[in-house]
Design goal:
- The structure is a single chain.
- Strands 3-2-1-4-5-7-6 form a 7-stranded mixed beta sheet, sandwiched between helices.
- Helix 2 packs parallel to helix 3 and helix 6 packs across helix 7.
- The chain has 227 residues and is of the alpha/beta class.
- The longest helix is centred in the N-terminal third of the chain and has 15 residues.
- The protein is built from 8 helices and 7 strands, in the order ααβαβαββαβαααββ.
- The chain has a single domain, classed as 3-Layer(aba) Sandwich (Rossmann fold).
- It binds S-adenosylmethionine.
- S-adenosylmethionine (SAM) binds next to helix 3 and strand 2.
Length: 227
Amino acid sequence: MNAFPDAAAKIYDDNIVRLVPGYALALDLMGSILTAQLSGPCRILVPGCGTGSEILVIAKCLPEARFVAVEPSVGMLDLARQRVGTAGLSERVEFVCGYLDDVGEQGAFDAATVSLVLHFLPDDGTKQAFLAGVAQRLAPNAPLLLLDAPNIAFDESALRQWLLIQHGPGVPPPDAVIKRMQTLWHRAAPERIAELLARAGFAEQATFFQTLGYVGTSALRRLPSVD
Ligand SMILES: C[S@@+](CC[C@H](N)C(=O)[O-])C[C@H]1O[C@@H](n2cnc3c(N)ncnc32)[C@H](O)[C@@H]1O
């Protein structure tokens, strides 16, 4: 369900930086925020790790952190494994080919990152169940860093122009990218995302990043989740 096709992995890393304005900055900020909140040995849950980009950034910031990387696409996970190995981080990352339900440990993680995953999940209970699943696996007060594409108003012509400048092999033309955002993605309103987070048990929500169509939200696991 929603797993990227294996073939998508080959072009993913080249394309994502040309599709999401500020993608690298968003990941750098995740590293900075977690550095301020965690220290020493800790465990970080990364559902939808894709090709492992957030792990590579955060691992540098937190040298004693260990990761559980969850990813349903074999192609994406293989590339994550390869990149993590090249960076000399294999000992610190456990890979799970599947979904959150395949990670049994409840309350075992000191933080979680969810980067560019939630907008692929429909708001028919699927987003809520996913966030509740993340919350259940976090210890009390553990931070969640969410990078999402919510349904916010933004300067569409600025995004179109940015995409035009970035355009290159394998990247669809700007209008196709924007149409995909508008028609294929499940972009919930920011208020709805806030409600889903609160219902899942996350408090102290704050924005740490915002660009053309993308928002980074930090929150803390506080309340028992409803699901
Ligand atoms: C746009 S990529 C993001 C990858 C990475 N987190 C990043 O920021 O570059 C979305 C990833 O989420 C995975 N995915 C889709 N649905 C998922 C789910 N329900 N649970 C976990 N991962 C999922 C896809 O296979 C894909 O690799």
